Every structure is written in structure tokens, then in C-alpha cells.
Structure prediction request, 252 residues.
Amino acid sequence: MDLLTDLPLPAALAILALVDGLSVGTLLIPLFLLVAPGRPRVPRILLYLGTITFFYLGVGVLFMLGILSVIDLGRNFLASAAGQVSLLVVGAGLLALGIWMGVADSRRKRRAAAGDPGAQDGGRLLRWRERLLAPGTSGAAVMGVALAAGIAEIAGMLPYLIGMTMLADAPIGAAERFALLAGYCAVMILPALALLAARVLAARAVERPLQRFTAWMQRTGAENTSWILGIVGFLLVRSAATQLGLELPVIG
Prediction:
């Protein structure tokens, strides 16, 4: 976080947006659409990306309109002993959740290796792809899937929430604030747009690498999430423990 705050605001937001651009809704589902058999359905993919972009933009606008007083309240609360205890509890919860997700993912992989079809990952993504690529699928259905993907990811939008908090706390005018928000949402879909352009312009060269990359993201998504939650949880626990004068046990 200190590294981000030392950077110019647009650069910090661009980094966070690119991290957000690697999520299920902004990259994995578009990748699933790109590697589907046949020619890529460019209009549907663009409609999907446009919808999820405006979803994030809308959430950001709502966030901006109400976050300034929340930041002040939150800062004052976290400066108190009760706030630090709450931070310690939240951090411990995130750390425990990350460990639990890692253990559950390891068990799922062992079941999948043993041939258990119920342990296969990505079933929801495959259903979304089938719905998006069906011949009779309407534009409204494509938009509905994009909104569903966005809503499903709200709880895990950590880079997005950090970016929105930085924006809301920045000493800039409302017009510049919302312009940077729009830029954030545009940068967020750049990875998917770049892959779409590569798929259209150099289909034979990128088709197989795209399929491998999609499989890797699907295979490691839960593991990556568990690591992120665990690391964030540990950092929160360490920060709160330091403020409260507690000593964490040293391993080794």
C-alpha cells in the first residue's frame, strides 16, 4: 500500500485496474468466450465487456458519492483501541478463510485426480459460456450474464475498493475524480480487449496459448484467491497487533 501511495494517483490507479483486469468477470469469462470453437463472437464479447465496465463504473459512482464521510468515520474508528481490535479480528478471519480455501482447493484437486466428476472446477463458467454463445441468445441475456459476474465478484473487489478509496480521499475536484474513475474502468478491460484483438487478427498463432492460459487461470483461481486473502489477513493482524502492543509468535 505504501508503494501505491508514493506513486502519482493515475499510475497507482492504473496498476490496481490492471490487477482488477485479471479477475473472473473481466478476463476469465471473456477468455472462455475467445477459445470457444468457431469464430469469436466479437459483438457479444464487446457487449459483455461494455456491460461489466459500466457496472463497475456505476458502483464506483455510488461509492464516490457516499464514501467521503465513511472514510473520516473509518479513520477515526481505526485510530481507537476498539478499531484496532476489530482490525485484528477481521485480519484473523481473512487469514483463516485463506487457509481454509487453500485446504479445500487441495482436496478438490485430489478428488479430481481420482476421477470424481463432482470435483471438477469451472462448471459455472462453462454454463455462462454456453448461454452467451447460444444462437438464440439476446443482447439482454449477455448483459445479464455480465451483471451477474460483476455482482458475484463484489465481495472480492479488493484492488477496486482500494482504488476507489484513494480516489475519494484525493484532494481533487469532482470532475477529475469521476474522469479518473472512468479511466480506471477502461484500463480494467484492456487485457481482455488486447486478447480479443489478438484472437481476431492472429487467430492461429494465439489460439493454443489462449487455451492454455484459460486452463491455468481456471485451475489456479481458488489457490490464488486463498493466497491473497491469507496475505492480506496476516498484514492486518500484524498491523493491529503492533498498534495494540501485542507480540506475535515467531516461527523458527
The chain has a mean pLDDT of 76. Residues 2-240 form one domain. The chain has one domain: 2-240. The CA atoms of residues 76 and 83 lie 8 Å apart.
